Every structure is written in C-alpha cells, then in structure tokens.
Amino acid sequence: MYSTRLSFISLFLLTATLSLTGQEIRSLDISQLDEYIETARQQWNVPGLSVTVVKDGKTLLAKGYGVRSIHTQEPVDAQTLFMLGSTTKAMTAAAMAMLVDEGVVSWHDKVIDHLPWFRLHDPYVANELTIKDLFTHNSGVGNADLLWVLWDYSTEEIVRRMSNLPLSYSMRGGYTYQNIMYATAGLVIEKASGQDWDRFIHQRLFEPLGMNKSCALKACAETFENRTKPHYPTDDGIIQIIDSNADSIGSAGSAWSCPEDIQKWMNFVLDSAVVNGKRLISKENFEILHSPHIIIPRGSFYPTTELTKPHFTAYSLGWFLHDYKGEYVQFHTGSLNGSGAIIGMIPDHNLAVYVMVNLDHAEVRHAIMYKVFDFILGLGDRDWSTDLFRLYSKRNDQGKMRREKLIASRIPNAPSNIPAQNMTGTYENAYLGILTITNSNEELIINCRPDRHISLDHWHNNTFLGRIVEYEHDTGDLIDFDVDAMGNLSFTLFGYEFAKKR
After folding, report:
1. Whole-angstrom distance, CA of residue 124 vs CA of residue 135
2. How far is CA 33 from CA 239, 362, 380, 384, 385, in A?
3. Domain coordinates in residue numbering, the chain
4. Backbone CA torsion sign across 84, 98, 107, 316
5. Residue 255 in contact with residue 201, Cβ under 8 Å?
6. According to the model, what pLDDT value does residue 441 have?
7. Residue 7's pLDDT is what?
8. Rounded mean pLDDT of the chain?
9. Residue-wise over 106-136: b if at least 16 C-beta within 10 A, else e?
10. SS3 per-residue string spanning 101-142
11. Which residues contact 205 (CB under 8 A, 6 or more apart)?
12. Three-state DSSP class for 154?
C-alpha cells in the first residue's frame, strides 16, 4: 500500500517547466520521477518514505510514499514527520554561524574558553581545540557513540566522559565521524546564547522559516500524531521497533521534519541563508559553512563512491562534499535505528532533494538523490535504484558470510564454567560507566539505558552473543566473560572491559 495523496503544490507542479541553466529550458514530466520513486521504494522494501525536490525557489515534489507504520498502515503524506538524524548537523552549524555573526563566539575560539570544564584525554588537545574543530570530525577523538546509544547520560555528562577516552590519532591529523563533538557544539551554543540548543533552533531557524511542524527534539515530535515509526529488516521480514532517542546529543542529530516544512529549509540554504528578503547569516560565514575544511579519505566515504567515482571527497561544517558528473555536490545523511534521511544539493543549479525513510539504513535514499540530480539536470538515465540495490545487496551478502563464519566457529557442547548467579551484579568501565547484569527468567540481561537491554544468549564456553531486546535482533558482538587468578570477574562489550564491583 502507498499513499497517492499529494500536497497541493506538488500536485500543481506534477508536470513542471523550469529553468535548468541561464539559457536552457526543458519540460519535465515529474510524474515519471514520481513513479520511479514508488518503484524504488518497493524494490528496497521500505515501508514509508518522503521525497522533497526544490529548484529555483520552487517546489517540484513534496510527497509521501508508503505507510507510517506496518502495524497501522496509515499513509505517509506531506505533513508526516520523519527523523532527520545527522542532517540536523547543518542546522547546528548554521546556529553557531549566527552567534559568530553576533560576535559572542569566534570560529577560532578555544572550546575551553566557553566550557571551562571541557577535558579530553590529552590536555594539549583539550586546550587547543577550537569551535570550528567541533564541526569537522578531525579532533583526534574516536567514535564515542556508546555513551548515548547504551547509556542514559545528560549531554554534559556524555561530553565529560570523553576525557577518559584515549585519542585515536593526532588532532587535525585524520578523520573519524564524531557525534559527541557536535553535542559539545550544542553546549557552546547554549552557553553563548543563554538558551537551550533546541529552543535556539526553534526561535532562530524554524520560526523565521515558518517550519511550524518541525521539532528539534524527539520529545517535541512525540506530540504529533502524524509521524513515522522506525522499522528494521530481519531474515523473517520487516519488523517495527521502538523509537530511538538522540535527544541527549540533540545538536548532532535529533531533529524531525516533514516535506511541507523541509522545503523551506532547503530553499533557505540554497538562497545563502536569506528568508523573506532578510539575511540570517552573513555571506562570509555562510561561505565558511559550505567551504571544504578537511579532505576525507576515499575509503572512509560512502560505498556509493564505487559507482559515482568522485575525484574528491571532503567535509565542510555539517556537509559532505564531492563532485558528481562535473557538478559540486553538498549532502549529508542521517541515521538512527530504524530511520534515515539524506539531503543533497547542487548549489550551482539551485537544486536540492531531501529523502526521509522509516527503515534502518535504507540506501534507496542515495539512489533517489542521484536519480533526482540526473532527472532534473538531464545528466543521464541510469537506474540508480537497481544499481545501488545490487551494490548494497553484495555488501549484505558479505556481512552474511562473516556471520556464517562466526556461526561455524561456535564450539558445540561447550558450557560456561561460571555459574549464572555469579555473573549477575554491577560492573564498571572507567570511560563508559556502570552496567548491571540481572537474571530474569533464567536469562541474563545487561541493563543499559531504560529503553535498552541486551540479553545474553550462551554461545560457547564463557562467551555469549548479545541481543538487543527492544529491537529483537542480535548486536553481532560476542561478549566474553573472564575470571582472573584472584577471582575477579569481568566481561568485554564492544571492545571495552567491564570489571565486576565487589
């Protein structure tokens, strides 16, 4: 099932005539693109998605496809809220640019000047890290997402705990995608503006742009009935899972919006931060937001580069950058468990597309983005959905092969020599914090945040396979228990050791 309802503007523009360059005019039958999107949705087995396309200040498409939930079968429409995930980062960068314009912050300010308590494992890096460094994923700090994925910490506590995480590389000497630095940027915005980050986004972005249905936090999105539910693919088909919550790192990826609203943000960015004739960000700082700041190694970029074959891949402030068929592309993805999004822009043609999906890592989002680029600009007729489906299916097959090897390594009839009752208790890791293990109906459970529990399925010997209870699928992580010569018990989770407290 899918919705055939269109917003008034997308219905009016179903067949559109638009300017592609200063000279060339061509007629486009948007219904062809509309049909392609629905076919792609079905090909990737996505319950619901929305697509918004704007060009030269006009909306060519703002439509929902499929359903919000496989349980309720309510159709997606132009007012349906989707999770934006890390496409929120561009909004946070824009917010900081406003404060730079006001003179209360400088891109070159030290973070510690605004957050005196800020610490990292290397004191030199903590003292030298600048505001701009928070946005470029090259601080030297490795991935720290477990701090918000498995723990129910406040934003400040998450940032404080990074002081116990050794750096992965030299400051500004590499690239690791880093959500917690964006969470830190949110705290700087709060300190400099005197407003909570989410309130600042609402007052300084959403309200001036007329984005009345958009939310900076999940807590706000939950007040809207017309919003999607997240879904996850399993061997037995698509299942609906509980909503993820990224509010504790809100400035890194917690916003929600819908096609009717997001077109306003798209046009705002394409028009260099001007809305209703008023500039909200200076030209100088707008250029800083969208200029390349670091080069990203090709192997660290998206698998789609196997087909797009860019000559460069880079990052600005909240945007990935690369070339595509001679065009300069700015884009960003957003992903939380069960949901995803992508925004792609070709500023030289005043063109942008936003895709939102309610299925975990449904890379049809990339396919639709490149298809829109090709279709609108006449860059070719490649079947991006089919080609990317093959690419990602191959990668999924490789993942299945790794899992098969894991299963083949399992030792049969090899029981644990640690009594289950001994495994229960409180464990601690200096960086991540405290976890408890309880025995519920003869099943060992690692208790993380209130909405996240990991059950331990015995694998062999003192090794267990973790399974996220709320998502009904395993983590792919083998959890090893160990007893040292002094009788001290510990286990390893995602590479981190937790020691049992006596």
Report:
1. 19
2. 28, 19, 13, 12, 12
3. 8-96+191-398, 420-500
4. positive
5. yes
6. 84
7. 35
8. 92
9. ebebbbbebbeebbbebeebbeebbbbbbbb
10. HHCCCCCCCEHHHHCCCCCCCCHHHHHHCECHHHHCCCCCCC
11. 91, 94, 95, 211, 265, 280
12. coil
AA identity, residue 315: Y
* Cβ-based burial of 173 (10 A; exposed 0-12, middle 13-18, buried ≥19): exposed
Strand-pairing partners, residue 467, are: 455, 474
467: three-class secondary structure by DSSP: strand
- Residue 294 pairs in a beta bridge with 315
Examine the pLDDT at 418 and tell me if it is beyond 90.
yes
DSSP symbols for 345-369: EEGGGTEEEEEEESSTT-THHHHHH
- Which whole-number Å values give the CA distances from 168 to 139, 175, 201, 482, in the listed order? 9, 10, 32, 26
Q: Report whether pLDDT(16) > 80.
A: no
The type of residue at 407 is: I
Q: Rounded distance, CA 437 to CA 457, Å?
A: 13
Question: Distance (Å, rounded) from C-alpha 275 to C-alpha 186?
Answer: 24
User: DSSP letter at 204?
Assistant: I
Tokens at residue 275, please?
């809305």
What the block records as the tokens of 201 is 């986004």
For residues 436 and 333, give the distance between their C-alpha atoms in angstroms, rounded to a whole number.
34
What is the CA 292 to chain-centroid distance, rounded? Answer: 20
φ, ψ for residue 247, nearest 5 deg = -60, -30
Tokens of residue 61, six digits: 């498409």
Q: What percent of the chain has pLDDT over 90?
A: 85
Lookup result for tokens 């109906």: 441
Q: Is 456 helix (H, G, I), strand (E, B) or coil?
A: strand
Strand locations in 274-387, DSSP E? 274-275, 278-279, 294-295, 313-315, 320-324, 327-336, 339-346, 351-357
Question: Taking the complete model, does pTM exceed 0.85, yes or no?
Answer: yes
What tens digit of pLDDT does each residue of 432-483 get?
999 999 998 889 999 998 888 999 999 999 999 999 888 777 777 899 999 9
H/E element, 189: helix 179-193
Cα end-to-end span (Å), the chain: 56
Residue 34, classed as helix, strand or coil, is helix
pLDDT band at 27 (very low <50, low <70, confident <90, very high): low
CATH dotted code for 8-96+191-398:
3.40.710.10
Query: In which region does residue 272 sit, left (phi positive, over 0), alpha (psi from -120 to 50) or beta (all else)?
Result: left
**pLDDT given at position 440:** 85
- Rg of the chain over CA atoms, in angstroms? 24
- N residues, the chain: 502
The partner residues of 19 in beta bridges, in order of sequence, read: 25
Strand partners, 204: none
Tell me, which fold does domain 420-500 have in CATH? Lipocalin (2.40.128)
Tell me the mean pLDDT in the region 39-54. Answer: 98
